Amino acid sequence: MSALPTPVRAPEGAPSAADVHRTLERCRALVAPALRDAVAGTHPWVGEMAAYSFGWCEVGGAPSRSSGGKGVRQALAVLGAEASGAPGGAAVRGAVAVELVHAFSLLHDDIMDGDESRRRRPTVWKAYGTGPAVLAGDALFALAVETLADAGAPAMRLLSRALRDLVHGQADDLLFASRPWTGPERVRLREYRTMAEHKTGALLGCAVALGAALGGAPPATVAALDRAGRHLGVAFQAVDDVLGIWGDPAVTGKPVHGDLRERKKTFPVLAALDSPAAGRLSALLESSAAPSEIADLIDRAGGRTATLAEARHQAAAARAALDTVPLAPGPAAELRSLLDFVIRREQ
Ligand code: GRG
């Protein structure tokens, strides 16, 4: 079995992980009360499932010490407003909306994929049943829309575009499962990038653009931040794919080689299928070969290296998009640190 990956080494003088955690915690503290208020507005049973999905409680409602998600999207929204010269508070409803949509999409995604654990706990459908979990997802979606209902048409348009793109990305991802590994019908890397931009990038772009829009930024700034977030999303997905094969389960909270066990068509696999090892690899993927053997071949064929290069390339494109508009220097630096964090993360 291959060694665990060092995703992307931090450049000299780069902000420390502690700096980024401080940013994430600062933004979480700013958004948390409004997020809890929004969830409190739904049916109590459904609200418990939503609270469970955020890591706030256990099944039955007792308080939880679970860490919940990283909160990248809410931080992007807050920094989007601050980078546009507004106080972070201006972005709070946008941050709440994107966290609600994120939680909703994970909840429904876990049902579609049949995944039984997330963030080291049983998924909502596993803990409460599929029907209730579908309803909890619907409630989170409805709460997101309600949260932004009075925020004006541009904000609503950003959210609805992200929702449309999310559905596109998810649909393409689901359809990839039935495509062959090789031949003219195989999934190309450029199709995968588009899928990832929609499935993962649209909401990250929406988060930072929504923050800017709510902070009164001009349309060019909103558009540039949206572009940056979308590139960041593809980088994020690439790193997610590496972690889904080589990540340390104790850190990721996901099963070892999970993506290979499920024979998912992720970036490292598709990149390796573009190499001379394609024939051997597709034969292994179609056999009952152990995931560790497949992971080794993908690695030797350059799949891991190509995916990490993709993450760096997309992060550079995100940085370039940020450079096209004037931004407040402090928050812009925090945004750049978050970019580095996303490609260096191990969970
Ligand atoms: C919009 C109607 C409508 C449907 C949505 C289910 C669905 C369709 C889309 C799913 C999109 C999806 C699951 C994207 C995954 C993106 C991703 C890599 C999530 C992981 O995000 P992290 O690591 O999660 O930020 P944490 O746990 O840290 O919050």
Automatic annotation (TrEMBL):
Pfam families: polyprenyl_synt. Keywords: Transferase. Coiled coil: none annotated. It comes from the Bacteria. InterPro entries: Isoprenoid_synthase_dom_sf (IPR008949), Polyprenyl_synt (IPR000092). PANTHER family: (2E,6E)-FARNESYL DIPHOSPHATE SYNTHASE, GERANYLGERANYL PYROPHOSPHATE SYNTHASE. Belongs to the FPP/GGPP synthase family. This is Polyprenyl synthetase family protein.
